[in-house]
Amino acid sequence: MEESSSVRAHPGPHPEDNGRSTQWRNWTGFWFLGLCNNFAYVVMLSAAHDILKKQESENATASVSFTLNADVHGGNKTNSSRYDCNPVSTAAVLLADILPTLVIKLSAPFVVHKVPYGIRVLFCVAMAALSFLLVSFSSSVWMSILGVIFASISSGLGELSFLSLTVYFSRDVLGGWGSGTGGAGVAGALLYSGLTQMGLSPRVTLLIMLLVPLAMLISYFVLLVPPDSLPQWKIREMQNAAVDAEDRQRLMDGSEEEEQDKPPHEVRGQTTEPLCFTEKLQIIRGLLRFVLPLCLVYYAEYFINQGLMELLYFPSFFLSHAEQYRWYQTLYQVGVLVSRSSLCCMKIRKLWALALLQVLNAVILLLAVRFQFLPSAWVVFIIILYEGLLGGAAYVNTFYFISVETEDRHREFAMAAASVGDSLGIALSGLCAFPVHSYFCSL
Fold it and tell me: Residue 203 domain-assigned?
Protein backbone atom coordinates (compact mmCIF):
# COMPACT_ATOMS: atom_id res chain seq x y z
CA MET A 1 0.00 0.00 0.00
CA GLU A 2 2.79 2.42 0.88
CA GLU A 3 4.57 1.71 -2.38
CA SER A 4 1.45 2.27 -4.47
CA SER A 5 0.63 5.52 -2.69
CA SER A 6 4.19 6.67 -3.25
CA VAL A 7 3.83 6.00 -6.95
CA ARG A 8 0.56 7.93 -7.07
CA ALA A 9 2.17 10.87 -5.25
CA HIS A 10 4.41 11.57 -8.26
CA PRO A 11 2.28 10.98 -11.36
CA GLY A 12 4.21 13.42 -13.52
CA PRO A 13 5.83 16.85 -13.70
CA HIS A 14 4.52 19.43 -11.26
CA PRO A 15 2.05 21.85 -12.92
CA GLU A 16 4.17 24.78 -11.76
CA ASP A 17 7.19 23.26 -13.51
CA ASN A 18 5.14 22.88 -16.68
CA GLY A 19 4.07 26.52 -16.40
CA ARG A 20 7.68 27.70 -16.06
CA SER A 21 8.74 25.53 -18.99
CA THR A 22 5.95 26.93 -21.17
CA GLN A 23 6.78 30.48 -20.14
CA TRP A 24 10.47 29.96 -20.95
CA ARG A 25 9.66 28.38 -24.33
CA ASN A 26 7.40 31.27 -25.26
CA TRP A 27 9.94 33.91 -24.20
CA THR A 28 12.67 32.14 -26.17
CA GLY A 29 10.37 31.69 -29.15
CA PHE A 30 9.59 35.41 -29.28
CA TRP A 31 13.30 36.23 -28.88
CA PHE A 32 14.10 34.21 -31.99
CA LEU A 33 11.09 35.62 -33.84
CA GLY A 34 12.37 39.14 -33.14
CA LEU A 35 15.87 38.19 -34.27
CA CYS A 36 14.72 36.47 -37.46
CA ASN A 37 12.13 39.10 -38.35
CA ASN A 38 14.60 42.01 -38.31
CA PHE A 39 17.61 40.05 -39.58
CA ALA A 40 16.87 40.36 -43.30
CA TYR A 41 16.08 44.07 -42.88
CA VAL A 42 19.46 44.66 -41.22
CA VAL A 43 21.52 42.55 -43.60
CA MET A 44 19.82 43.38 -46.89
CA LEU A 45 21.07 46.94 -47.12
CA SER A 46 24.79 46.18 -47.06
CA ALA A 47 24.30 42.97 -49.05
CA ALA A 48 22.46 44.81 -51.80
CA HIS A 49 25.25 47.38 -51.89
CA ASP A 50 27.86 44.66 -52.46
CA ILE A 51 25.89 42.98 -55.23
CA LEU A 52 25.11 46.27 -56.96
CA LYS A 53 28.72 47.40 -56.77
CA LYS A 54 29.70 44.20 -58.53
CA GLN A 55 27.11 44.87 -61.22
CA GLU A 56 28.42 48.41 -61.57
CA SER A 57 31.95 47.17 -62.15
CA GLU A 58 30.67 44.75 -64.77
CA ASN A 59 28.75 47.46 -66.59
CA ALA A 60 30.49 50.80 -66.27
CA THR A 61 28.15 52.41 -68.78
CA ALA A 62 25.36 52.22 -66.20
CA SER A 63 27.24 54.34 -63.70
CA VAL A 64 24.54 57.00 -63.53
CA SER A 65 21.95 54.42 -62.53
CA PHE A 66 24.22 53.01 -59.87
CA THR A 67 25.15 56.20 -58.04
CA LEU A 68 22.40 55.42 -55.56
CA ASN A 69 24.41 52.43 -54.42
CA ALA A 70 27.68 54.11 -53.46
CA ASP A 71 29.41 52.34 -50.60
CA VAL A 72 28.00 53.87 -47.41
CA HIS A 73 31.04 52.76 -45.43
CA GLY A 74 33.69 54.46 -47.49
CA GLY A 75 34.38 57.95 -48.66
CA ASN A 76 34.29 59.54 -52.03
CA LYS A 77 37.86 60.58 -52.52
CA THR A 78 37.12 62.47 -55.72
CA ASN A 79 34.92 65.15 -54.18
CA SER A 80 36.18 68.45 -52.81
CA SER A 81 33.94 68.59 -49.75
CA ARG A 82 35.61 68.75 -46.36
CA TYR A 83 33.13 66.10 -45.19
CA ASP A 84 34.41 63.40 -47.59
CA CYS A 85 30.85 62.91 -48.87
CA ASN A 86 29.30 60.14 -50.88
CA PRO A 87 27.68 61.36 -54.13
CA VAL A 88 24.19 60.54 -52.80
CA SER A 89 23.03 60.45 -49.19
CA THR A 90 22.66 57.01 -47.61
CA ALA A 91 19.09 58.14 -46.92
CA ALA A 92 18.28 57.18 -50.53
CA VAL A 93 18.71 53.48 -49.85
CA LEU A 94 17.07 53.85 -46.45
CA LEU A 95 13.88 55.07 -48.15
CA ALA A 96 13.88 52.11 -50.53
CA ASP A 97 14.11 49.84 -47.49
CA ILE A 98 11.52 51.52 -45.25
CA LEU A 99 8.70 52.70 -47.54
CA PRO A 100 7.19 49.23 -48.19
CA THR A 101 7.19 48.60 -44.43
CA LEU A 102 5.47 51.93 -43.83
CA VAL A 103 2.74 51.21 -46.40
CA ILE A 104 2.07 47.82 -44.81
CA LYS A 105 1.90 49.23 -41.28
CA LEU A 106 -0.49 51.99 -42.34
CA SER A 107 -2.93 49.67 -44.11
CA ALA A 108 -2.57 46.12 -42.76
CA PRO A 109 -3.99 46.65 -39.23
CA PHE A 110 -7.43 47.30 -40.76
CA VAL A 111 -7.58 44.03 -42.73
CA VAL A 112 -4.87 41.68 -41.46
CA HIS A 113 -7.15 40.20 -38.78
CA LYS A 114 -8.87 38.30 -41.61
CA VAL A 115 -5.66 36.32 -42.19
CA PRO A 116 -4.80 33.60 -39.64
CA TYR A 117 -1.43 33.89 -37.90
CA GLY A 118 -0.09 30.67 -39.39
CA ILE A 119 -0.66 31.96 -42.92
CA ARG A 120 0.97 35.29 -42.07
CA VAL A 121 4.09 33.61 -40.73
CA LEU A 122 4.41 31.39 -43.80
CA PHE A 123 4.09 34.47 -46.04
CA CYS A 124 6.75 36.38 -44.07
CA VAL A 125 9.11 33.41 -44.26
CA ALA A 126 8.57 33.13 -48.01
CA MET A 127 9.22 36.86 -48.53
CA ALA A 128 12.42 36.76 -46.46
CA ALA A 129 13.74 33.69 -48.29
CA LEU A 130 12.84 35.20 -51.65
CA SER A 131 14.66 38.42 -50.76
CA PHE A 132 17.88 36.53 -50.02
CA LEU A 133 17.58 34.53 -53.23
CA LEU A 134 16.80 37.55 -55.42
CA VAL A 135 19.69 39.65 -54.16
CA SER A 136 22.19 36.78 -54.19
CA PHE A 137 21.37 35.80 -57.80
CA SER A 138 20.68 39.34 -58.98
CA SER A 139 21.79 40.19 -62.50
CA SER A 140 20.26 43.65 -62.70
CA VAL A 141 19.47 46.65 -60.54
CA TRP A 142 15.75 46.01 -60.44
CA MET A 143 16.23 42.47 -59.12
CA SER A 144 18.35 43.73 -56.23
CA ILE A 145 15.90 46.50 -55.38
CA LEU A 146 13.04 44.00 -55.56
CA GLY A 147 14.94 41.80 -53.11
CA VAL A 148 15.25 44.72 -50.69
CA ILE A 149 11.51 45.42 -51.06
CA PHE A 150 10.63 41.80 -50.26
CA ALA A 151 12.80 41.96 -47.13
CA SER A 152 10.99 45.14 -46.13
CA ILE A 153 7.56 43.52 -46.68
CA SER A 154 8.57 40.51 -44.58
CA SER A 155 9.89 42.69 -41.76
CA GLY A 156 6.92 45.10 -41.73
CA LEU A 157 4.18 42.47 -41.81
CA GLY A 158 6.11 40.31 -39.35
CA GLU A 159 6.54 43.11 -36.83
CA LEU A 160 2.89 44.11 -36.64
CA SER A 161 1.80 40.44 -36.64
CA PHE A 162 4.14 39.33 -33.87
CA LEU A 163 3.37 42.39 -31.74
CA SER A 164 -0.34 41.52 -32.08
CA LEU A 165 0.49 37.89 -31.31
CA THR A 166 1.94 38.84 -27.90
CA VAL A 167 -1.56 39.51 -26.54
CA TYR A 168 -2.23 35.76 -26.60
CA PHE A 169 0.71 35.09 -24.27
CA SER A 170 1.96 36.33 -20.92
CA ARG A 171 3.16 39.93 -21.05
CA ASP A 172 6.82 39.03 -20.46
CA VAL A 173 7.16 37.78 -24.07
CA LEU A 174 7.34 41.46 -25.07
CA GLY A 175 10.74 41.52 -23.38
CA GLY A 176 11.84 38.53 -25.44
CA TRP A 177 10.59 40.12 -28.67
CA GLY A 178 12.30 43.44 -27.92
CA SER A 179 15.58 41.79 -27.00
CA GLY A 180 15.51 39.65 -30.14
CA THR A 181 14.91 42.63 -32.41
CA GLY A 182 17.82 44.40 -30.74
CA GLY A 183 20.02 41.36 -31.21
CA ALA A 184 19.19 41.28 -34.93
CA GLY A 185 21.17 44.45 -35.55
CA VAL A 186 24.34 43.20 -33.88
CA ALA A 187 24.03 39.62 -35.15
CA GLY A 188 23.18 40.64 -38.71
CA ALA A 189 26.03 43.11 -39.01
CA LEU A 190 28.63 40.82 -37.38
CA LEU A 191 27.59 37.68 -39.27
CA TYR A 192 27.50 39.31 -42.68
CA SER A 193 30.77 41.18 -42.12
CA GLY A 194 32.44 38.12 -40.60
CA LEU A 195 31.51 35.72 -43.40
CA THR A 196 32.53 38.14 -46.16
CA GLN A 197 35.74 38.96 -44.27
CA MET A 198 36.54 35.22 -44.25
CA GLY A 199 36.54 35.35 -48.03
CA LEU A 200 33.04 34.20 -48.85
CA SER A 201 31.32 36.09 -51.64
CA PRO A 202 28.17 38.10 -50.87
CA ARG A 203 26.18 35.60 -52.93
CA VAL A 204 27.34 32.59 -50.88
CA THR A 205 26.89 34.55 -47.65
CA LEU A 206 23.29 35.36 -48.50
CA LEU A 207 22.55 31.76 -49.44
CA ILE A 208 23.88 30.65 -46.04
CA MET A 209 21.50 33.14 -44.42
CA LEU A 210 18.54 31.22 -45.83
CA LEU A 211 18.82 29.41 -42.48
CA VAL A 212 17.27 32.49 -40.85
CA PRO A 213 13.77 32.08 -42.41
CA LEU A 214 13.98 28.40 -41.46
CA ALA A 215 14.75 29.42 -37.87
CA MET A 216 11.63 31.63 -37.91
CA LEU A 217 9.51 28.63 -38.89
CA ILE A 218 10.96 26.53 -36.07
CA SER A 219 10.56 29.34 -33.54
CA TYR A 220 6.89 29.84 -34.36
CA PHE A 221 5.67 26.32 -35.02
CA VAL A 222 7.90 24.37 -32.59
CA LEU A 223 9.06 26.62 -29.75
CA LEU A 224 5.87 28.56 -29.02
CA VAL A 225 3.08 26.96 -26.98
CA PRO A 226 0.01 28.78 -28.38
CA PRO A 227 -3.29 28.93 -26.47
CA ASP A 228 -6.45 27.41 -27.91
CA SER A 229 -7.86 30.90 -28.57
CA LEU A 230 -5.13 31.74 -31.11
CA PRO A 231 -6.55 31.92 -34.67
CA GLN A 232 -3.81 29.75 -36.14
CA TRP A 233 -5.37 28.50 -39.38
CA LYS A 234 -8.97 29.76 -39.23
CA ILE A 235 -10.15 33.29 -39.91
CA ARG A 236 -11.37 35.26 -36.91
CA GLU A 237 -15.09 34.87 -37.62
CA MET A 238 -14.80 31.08 -37.75
CA GLN A 239 -12.73 31.11 -34.57
CA ASN A 240 -15.33 33.23 -32.79
CA ALA A 241 -18.11 30.85 -33.81
CA ALA A 242 -16.14 27.92 -32.41
CA VAL A 243 -15.50 29.75 -29.15
CA ASP A 244 -19.17 30.68 -28.80
CA ALA A 245 -20.10 27.02 -29.22
CA GLU A 246 -17.59 26.03 -26.56
CA ASP A 247 -18.95 28.70 -24.21
CA ARG A 248 -22.48 27.42 -24.64
CA GLN A 249 -21.33 23.88 -23.93
CA ARG A 250 -19.40 25.08 -20.86
CA LEU A 251 -22.53 26.76 -19.51
CA MET A 252 -24.51 23.59 -20.05
CA ASP A 253 -21.85 21.62 -18.19
CA GLY A 254 -21.76 24.16 -15.35
CA SER A 255 -18.00 24.67 -15.71
CA GLU A 256 -17.86 28.47 -15.60
CA GLU A 257 -15.77 28.35 -12.46
CA GLU A 258 -12.97 26.57 -14.29
CA GLU A 259 -12.57 29.58 -16.59
CA GLN A 260 -12.34 31.91 -13.60
CA ASP A 261 -9.63 29.76 -12.04
CA LYS A 262 -7.34 30.03 -15.06
CA PRO A 263 -4.16 32.10 -14.73
CA PRO A 264 -4.34 35.53 -16.43
CA HIS A 265 -1.96 34.53 -19.21
CA GLU A 266 -4.27 31.70 -20.27
CA VAL A 267 -7.25 33.96 -20.86
CA ARG A 268 -5.41 36.81 -22.58
CA GLY A 269 -6.21 37.23 -26.23
CA GLN A 270 -9.58 35.51 -26.11
CA THR A 271 -11.59 36.16 -29.24
CA THR A 272 -14.41 38.71 -29.19
CA GLU A 273 -16.60 40.44 -31.73
CA PRO A 274 -14.52 42.13 -34.46
CA LEU A 275 -13.88 45.84 -34.06
CA CYS A 276 -15.73 48.12 -36.43
CA PHE A 277 -13.94 50.84 -38.42
CA THR A 278 -15.14 53.63 -36.10
CA GLU A 279 -13.81 51.78 -33.05
CA LYS A 280 -10.45 51.34 -34.74
CA LEU A 281 -10.22 55.06 -35.43
CA GLN A 282 -11.01 55.77 -31.77
CA ILE A 283 -8.27 53.38 -30.70
CA ILE A 284 -5.80 55.07 -33.03
CA ARG A 285 -6.70 58.44 -31.53
CA GLY A 286 -5.96 57.08 -28.07
CA LEU A 287 -2.64 55.62 -29.28
CA LEU A 288 -1.27 59.00 -30.36
CA ARG A 289 0.22 59.58 -26.90
CA PHE A 290 2.38 56.51 -27.55
CA VAL A 291 2.91 56.72 -31.31
CA LEU A 292 3.98 60.38 -31.51
CA PRO A 293 6.88 60.08 -29.02
CA LEU A 294 8.01 56.87 -30.73
CA CYS A 295 7.85 58.56 -34.13
CA LEU A 296 9.87 61.52 -32.85
CA VAL A 297 12.50 59.26 -31.28
CA TYR A 298 13.02 57.37 -34.54
CA TYR A 299 12.91 60.53 -36.62
CA ALA A 300 15.81 62.00 -34.63
CA GLU A 301 17.57 58.65 -34.45
CA TYR A 302 17.63 57.95 -38.17
CA PHE A 303 18.27 61.58 -39.03
CA ILE A 304 21.52 61.03 -37.13
CA ASN A 305 22.20 57.61 -38.64
CA GLN A 306 21.45 58.41 -42.28
CA GLY A 307 21.89 62.17 -42.48
CA LEU A 308 24.76 62.99 -40.12
CA MET A 309 26.72 59.88 -39.25
CA GLU A 310 28.66 59.70 -42.52
CA LEU A 311 29.56 63.41 -42.14
CA LEU A 312 31.05 62.97 -38.66
CA TYR A 313 34.53 62.31 -40.02
CA PHE A 314 37.79 63.00 -38.16
CA PRO A 315 40.72 62.90 -40.64
CA SER A 316 43.42 62.83 -37.93
CA PHE A 317 41.84 59.92 -36.03
CA PHE A 318 43.65 56.56 -36.12
CA LEU A 319 40.65 54.92 -37.84
CA SER A 320 39.83 55.57 -41.49
CA HIS A 321 36.52 57.14 -42.54
CA ALA A 322 35.11 53.71 -43.39
CA GLU A 323 36.23 52.28 -40.05
CA GLN A 324 34.81 55.22 -38.11
CA TYR A 325 31.46 54.75 -39.82
CA ARG A 326 31.42 51.01 -39.09
CA TRP A 327 32.10 51.63 -35.40
CA TYR A 328 29.36 54.24 -35.25
CA GLN A 329 26.91 51.67 -36.62
CA THR A 330 28.18 48.89 -34.36
CA LEU A 331 27.96 50.96 -31.17
CA TYR A 332 24.48 52.11 -32.14
CA GLN A 333 23.33 48.50 -32.52
CA VAL A 334 24.94 47.54 -29.19
CA GLY A 335 23.02 50.35 -27.48
CA VAL A 336 19.77 49.20 -29.07
CA LEU A 337 20.38 45.59 -27.98
CA VAL A 338 21.08 46.55 -24.36
CA SER A 339 18.06 48.83 -23.97
CA ARG A 340 15.64 46.53 -25.80
CA SER A 341 16.68 43.80 -23.36
CA SER A 342 16.12 45.99 -20.29
CA LEU A 343 12.38 45.52 -19.83
CA CYS A 344 12.91 42.89 -17.12
CA CYS A 345 15.04 45.33 -15.11
CA MET A 346 13.42 48.73 -15.55
CA LYS A 347 10.43 50.38 -17.21
CA ILE A 348 10.26 54.01 -18.36
CA ARG A 349 6.80 55.57 -18.54
CA LYS A 350 7.93 59.07 -19.60
CA LEU A 351 8.15 58.42 -23.34
CA TRP A 352 8.19 62.11 -24.24
CA ALA A 353 11.35 62.52 -22.16
CA LEU A 354 13.08 59.88 -24.28
CA ALA A 355 11.90 61.66 -27.44
CA LEU A 356 13.20 65.05 -26.31
CA LEU A 357 16.56 63.59 -25.29
CA GLN A 358 16.90 61.98 -28.71
CA VAL A 359 16.06 65.27 -30.43
CA LEU A 360 18.73 66.93 -28.28
CA ASN A 361 21.22 64.33 -29.56
CA ALA A 362 20.30 65.16 -33.16
CA VAL A 363 20.66 68.92 -32.57
CA ILE A 364 24.08 68.50 -30.91
CA LEU A 365 25.40 66.32 -33.73
CA LEU A 366 23.92 68.61 -36.40
CA LEU A 367 25.78 71.56 -34.85
CA ALA A 368 28.89 69.38 -34.53
CA VAL A 369 28.80 68.63 -38.25
CA ARG A 370 28.32 72.31 -39.11
CA PHE A 371 30.86 73.86 -36.76
CA GLN A 372 33.12 70.83 -36.14
CA PHE A 373 33.62 71.53 -32.44
CA LEU A 374 33.85 67.92 -31.23
CA PRO A 375 37.50 67.09 -30.47
CA SER A 376 37.56 63.39 -31.36
CA ALA A 377 35.58 60.45 -32.66
CA TRP A 378 35.65 59.07 -29.10
CA VAL A 379 33.05 61.67 -28.10
CA VAL A 380 30.86 60.67 -31.05
CA PHE A 381 31.19 57.01 -30.04
CA ILE A 382 29.71 57.82 -26.63
CA ILE A 383 26.86 59.90 -28.09
CA ILE A 384 26.01 57.19 -30.66
CA LEU A 385 25.93 54.49 -27.98
CA TYR A 386 23.64 56.72 -25.91
CA GLU A 387 21.48 57.29 -28.99
CA GLY A 388 20.99 53.54 -29.38
CA LEU A 389 20.09 53.18 -25.70
CA LEU A 390 17.38 55.86 -26.00
CA GLY A 391 15.93 54.38 -29.21
CA GLY A 392 15.73 50.83 -27.88
CA ALA A 393 14.22 51.98 -24.58
CA ALA A 394 11.55 54.00 -26.40
CA TYR A 395 10.58 50.98 -28.51
CA VAL A 396 10.13 48.35 -25.79
CA ASN A 397 8.54 50.69 -23.26
CA THR A 398 6.06 52.03 -25.82
CA PHE A 399 4.67 48.58 -26.58
CA TYR A 400 4.85 47.44 -22.96
CA PHE A 401 2.66 50.30 -21.75
CA ILE A 402 0.29 49.91 -24.70
CA SER A 403 -0.13 46.29 -23.63
CA VAL A 404 -0.70 47.30 -20.01
CA GLU A 405 -3.02 50.26 -20.51
CA THR A 406 -5.16 49.12 -23.46
CA GLU A 407 -8.46 47.29 -22.96
CA ASP A 408 -8.37 43.56 -23.62
CA ARG A 409 -10.73 43.82 -26.58
CA HIS A 410 -8.64 46.56 -28.22
CA ARG A 411 -5.15 45.28 -27.41
CA GLU A 412 -4.47 43.13 -30.49
CA PHE A 413 -5.37 45.90 -32.94
CA ALA A 414 -3.58 48.54 -30.83
CA MET A 415 -0.29 46.63 -30.86
CA ALA A 416 -0.41 46.31 -34.65
CA ALA A 417 -1.48 49.90 -35.31
CA ALA A 418 1.16 51.43 -33.01
CA SER A 419 3.94 49.70 -34.93
CA VAL A 420 3.65 52.42 -37.58
CA GLY A 421 5.32 54.93 -35.24
CA ASP A 422 8.94 53.91 -35.77
CA SER A 423 8.57 53.38 -39.54
CA LEU A 424 6.89 56.76 -40.03
CA GLY A 425 9.70 58.48 -38.13
CA ILE A 426 12.35 56.66 -40.18
CA ALA A 427 10.69 57.57 -43.50
CA LEU A 428 10.37 61.25 -42.55
CA SER A 429 13.99 61.36 -41.42
CA GLY A 430 15.09 59.89 -44.75
CA LEU A 431 13.29 62.64 -46.63
CA CYS A 432 14.83 65.36 -44.44
CA ALA A 433 18.31 63.86 -44.71
CA PHE A 434 18.51 64.57 -48.47
CA PRO A 435 18.67 68.40 -48.31
CA VAL A 436 20.89 68.30 -45.21
CA HIS A 437 23.36 65.99 -46.97
CA SER A 438 23.34 68.15 -50.11
CA TYR A 439 23.90 71.33 -48.09
CA PHE A 440 26.93 70.08 -46.20
CA CYS A 441 28.48 68.36 -49.18
CA SER A 442 28.26 71.62 -51.15
CA LEU A 443 30.39 73.47 -48.60
Answer: yes
